[in-house]
Design brief:
Helix content is about 55%, strand content about 5%. The protein is mainly alpha-helical. Strands 1-2 form a two-stranded antiparallel sheet. It has a two-stranded antiparallel sheet with strand order 3-4. It is elongated and about 75 Å long.
């Protein structure tokens, strides 16, 4: 759903009931939270944040929304304080003077953190104003609205303070990745030849994991482009051959899971960018689709986003640690240098080392987490890519979707087949850890 559709949805809610004073139920509609997440997703895309930083935006926004719900319904939902690294006690709401609408407060806290973590001020102001107007139009007393806003601000301040200790700011001034000519070492790829993205992301504070080395896979295959019998040589040729013989179904799979937040298109001297949701943004969309199909209530929907965002965030940190431990070059570089200078992958190669695969890791992690919430064999149709002109795909489970994601990066020619398989398994382990360790519903 695009931004126009989101505001249309809000407008429909404005006019859904001509009777005032129906505010008690208006914010309990979980689809409103799903649309709010989509609004943040759109803002993230519009501000050109890379997929790794995007996962941070979703994490803190989702945790802020969840902590409001946990505080509002303490008999049913447990705070993440004490469950995740560095998060202290969240201030309790004071309802002795004014009643708080915790659903509205959760929406406002989500928006406030979504904007505050990395965005320029005001990125979600119009949307937040529309939520407040909705409250007024449906008869919410001004003191209740004010109390809801104030509690949202209180929780947001606590989560923002937590976010500022995750070492993100320190990595902004860290040394750049050094590129030098060494066989098998990553180097920038066409068409933009961009520098390595977030080479210090492994220094970011993880949320549920014990260490960035907790799920270390075996090292990548030794670089060897001269021996046709070597494991590395075979992987390079597999990548070249699959791209050169893609079926329509394989092409569709690769395009569906591309999730390149900024593709640089080059035509002669003309260059322009096209945008999509990032991999984490795609899985935020899937979370909303699942919650709505399952008929989840508002608190369960908020919890699903929070738990999935934790899995995505930790999976990126784990993967980036491995990427910049081994610094392996991409199939495109190996094929261009040693086999075919004119070869190009089906998808545009992203600007960071090959081993391991980020999308494969975070998808498997999210799939395991969502399975723990909604169950296995949860059939759904993923409509996330429709707004980018890509047909929807249907799955029998989240795990099937993650399996397909792993294949998509191989079909796209941007990852080696074995790397996708190793990454998928690592993501499964991270997702299992998050599912087991993070306890939300009492």
């Amino acid at each position: 759903m695009n931004r126009i559709a989101v505001f249309a949805f809000v407008a429909i809610l404005f006019s859904a009931c001509n009777t005032k004073h129906d505010y008690d139920n208006i914010f309990k509609d979980p689809s409103l939270y799903c649309n709010t997440v989509h609004e943040l997703n759109t803002v993230v895309m519009g501000n050109n944040f890379g997929p790794i930083v995007a996962s941070r935006n979703y994490l803190y926004a989702a945790v802020a929304g969840y902590e409001v719900i946990a505080a509002g319904y303490p008999d049913h939902w447990a705070s993440l304080s004490g469950q995740v690294h560095g998060l202290g006690p969240i201030p309790k709401p004071d309802t002795t003077t004014h009643k708080i609408d915790f659903e509205l407060a959760a929406l406002l806290a989500y928006c406030k953190l979504g904007e505050a973590v990395t965005f320029p001020e005001g990125s979600m102001r119009a949307y937040v104003d529309s939520l407040k107007k909705m409250a007024t139009d449906h008869g919410m007393p001004s003191d209740m609205l004010q109390a809801s806003v104030e509690y949202a601000d209180t929780v947001s301040a606590a989560i923002k303070a937590w976010s500022k200790k995750d070492h993100y700011a320190e990595t902004r001034g860290a040394p750049e990745y050094m590129v030098y000519d060494s066989p098998g070492r990553w180097k920038p790829t066409p068409p933009a030849y961009s520098p390595a993205m977030e080479p210090h992301w492994s220094e970011i504070r993880y949320v549920a994991m014990d260490s960035v080395r907790q799920f270390m896979p075996h090292p990548p295959y030794p670089f060897n482009v001269t021996d046709p019998k070597s494991l590395y040589y075979r992987e390079v040729k597999l990548s070249q051959n699959i791209v050169d013989s893609l079926t329509p179904e394989q092409t569709w799979i690769a395009d569906f899971w591309d999730d390149n937040p900024f593709k640089l298109n080059v035509s002669g001297h003309l260059m322009f960018g096209t945008k999509k949701f990032s991999p984490a943004g795609h899985w935020m969309g899937i979370t909303g689709i699942a919650a709505q199909k399952a008929g989840a209530d508002f608190p369960t929907t908020v919890a699903a986003y929070a738990k999935t965002s934790i899995a995505l965030f930790d999976a990126f940190i784990q993967c980036w640690n491995i990427k910049f431990t081994y610094n392996t070059l991409r199939p495109e570089t190996a094929i261009n240098q040693y086999f075919d200078a004119n070869w190009r992958p089906h998808l545009q190669t992203p600007p960071f080392p090959e081993y391991t695969c980020g999308h494969c890791t975070i998808s498997a992690s999210a799939a395991e987490t969502l399975t723990s919430i909604f169950g296995d064999n949860f059939a759904y149709t993923d409509t996330t890519e429709l707004e980018f002109g890509i047909k929807s795909r249907s799955f029998t489970s989240f795990r099937q979707a993650a399996d397909e994601t792993a294949k998509s990066r191989f079909y796209g020619g941007i990852h080696y087949k074995y790397s996708c398989e190793v990454s998928h398994e690592m993501g499964n382990q991270i997702g299992d850890l998050v599912a087991d360790r993070i306890k939300m519903k009492k």
